[in-house]
Amino acid sequence: LGHNSTNQKVLDELTAHWSIKRLVGFTTGMFFMKTWAPRLHNYCSDHLERLLFSDCSLQRIFENSIFPGTTFNFGPQTVSFPHVDFTNLPFGWCPIWKFGNYNHHKGGHVILWDLKMVIEFPPGSLIVIPSGSCRHSNTRIGKKETRMSFTQYFSGGLCRWVDQGYQTQEQYLNSLDQTERDRESERRRTQWLMGLGLYPTLDELGGPP
Fold it and tell me: Which Gene3D superfamilies is this protein grouped with (predicted)?
């Protein structure tokens, strides 16, 4: 919810650094959101723009990004247990960059538990996963090795806040009549289908039929 002055200074320097800005631009632009998932990109971009317009005190972390949240894990050995980032948008994509000095053949692998996949993840690499619904972790590295990470994400609560007219869920539901509540309940029950519809198909990606 807030940073002390020392941490804020470091974060301001990091987010203003040209190299971090280039990583962010690569992630948001040519590599994945606009090119690979334009519908998902538009959904996130639209919600972020509406959120910022509703409150002039809010500020973007990066001007060239559609993600309102970011985390720097400084290490020196960033290793995570199996987890799901349940506060993130369930169908949203989360870019994860890895840095450091470690043997990616022996450690630092990404594990996607639900997909039963173990993936080598060299320093300087990027992976994009739906972290709000995909259980993931990474393996340990050597004692003298280092590993850091830089992630971006979109909180599901921010989307709900926008969709509910910039008010809490309780306030929003209390403003509805019974017919509207039933409609809202059905919308939430089928929202996962809407989220899947934002993903690209193999045909759209030029893959095999």
Answer: 3.60.130.30
List pLDDT tens digits, range 131-188.
999 999 999 999 999 999 999 999 999 999 999 999 999 999 999 999 999 998 998 8
Q: Please tell me the predicted confidence (pLDDT) of residue 75.
A: 81
Full strand arrangement of the beta sheet holding 69-73: 69-73, 146-153, 94-101, 126-129
Site of tokens 């990066």: 62
- pTM beyond 0.85, yes or no: yes
- Burial track 60-87 (b if 16+ CB lie within 10 A, e otherwise): eebeebbbbebebbeeebbeeeeebbee
Query: Helix (H) and strand (E) counts for the chain?
Result: 8, 7
Q: Residue 79 — very low, low, confident or very high, per pLDDT cuts 50/70/90? A: confident
**What pLDDT score does 152 carry?**
93
Sheet containing strand 117-119, edge to edge, reads 117-119, 110-112, 136-138
Nearest partner of 99 among 10, 25, 6, 14, judged by Cα:
14
Q: Is the dihedral of CA 168, 84, 130, 55 positive or negative?
A: positive
Least Cα distance to 69 among 145, 180, 153 occurs for 153
In whole angstroms, how far apart are CA 4 and each of 8, 9, 11?
Answer: 6, 9, 11
- Residue 54 CA to residue 43 CA, distance in Å, equals 17
